[in-house]
Design brief:
Layout (H helix, E strand, L loop, with lengths): L1 H9 L13 H13 L2 E10 L4 E9 L3 E6 L5 E6 L2 E6 L4 E6 L20 E8 L3 E8 L8 E7 L2 E9 L5 E11 L24
Antiparallel strand pairs: 1-2, 1-11, 2-3, 3-4, 4-5, 5-6, 7-8, 8-9, 9-10, 10-11
């Protein structure tokens, strides 16, 4: 369950048609959105193909800061402060640290995303009047599959992300009531405990 939640965190949707119809304008719109959005606050629902369902609240502040608060019965808190991602199982009172370098899907949290066909390339694309769906493949992704992003077209904003984990479980995270570029409290991205994991030496 822990591994599934962590992958869902960064992996920011349905069957996608082959990438045959995207234009330079479509690619530019996706790049501009991912690079220009500074903060996101939203409710989320996470669905996995193995039947697991969870929901909660997500906060993103670029670059590389994220907080996901899972509600009961999951009771998990995930916080990334730009250096470490901390996974806190509240029921078990257990904490794990994850190095950003070990999670290639953190590309979603960056400010310099370039879909150039080299480091990041489009593997699938679909667009209709209301929705744009794009599958992105990227270098150094490890065992993770393609990440698929779904956007509303009007206004153009991220609605869902999907990824397949190394166990072939498909995980989709859908956003609801998103507030874009709203100032966020810096304390959201700080994990506090008697001995904070963010003070530990960085490493694998």
């Amino acid at each position: 369950m822990k591994k599934t939640l962590v992958i869902a965190l960064f992996a920011m949707f349905s069957v996608i048609k082959p990438a045959v119809s995207q234009t330079k304008n479509d690619i530019a719109k996706i790049e501009n959105y991912l690079n220009s959005v500074k903060t996101i606050e939203a409710d989320f629902v996470q669905n996995a193909s193995n039947g697991n369902v969870a929901e909660g609240k997500i906060y993103i502040e670029k670059p590389n800061k994220i907080r996901m608060e899972y509600g009961a019965p999951t009771n998990v808190l995930i916080v990334g402060n730009g250096e470490y991602v901390v996974y806190n199982d509240k029921d078990l009172d257990q904490i794990s640290n994850i190095d950003y370098d070990d999670i290639p899907a953190t590309m979603i949290l960056g400010n310099d995303i370039k879909i150039d066909g080299k480091d990041i390339k489009i593997t699938s694309f679909y667009k209709d009047a209301g929705t744009t769906i794009v599958g992105l493949d990227y270098k150094n992704k490890g065992d993770l599959g393609t990440i698929t992003l779904t956007f509303n077209n009007s206004p153009f904003e991220l609605r869902q992300w999907k990824i397949v984990d190394p166990q072939s479980v498909e995980i989709a995270v859908s956003l609801y009531g998103a507030k874009i570029d709203k100032p966020l409290d810096p304390a959201l991205f700080k994990f506090k405990r008697k001995s904070s994991p963010f003070n530990l030496k960085k490493g694998r």
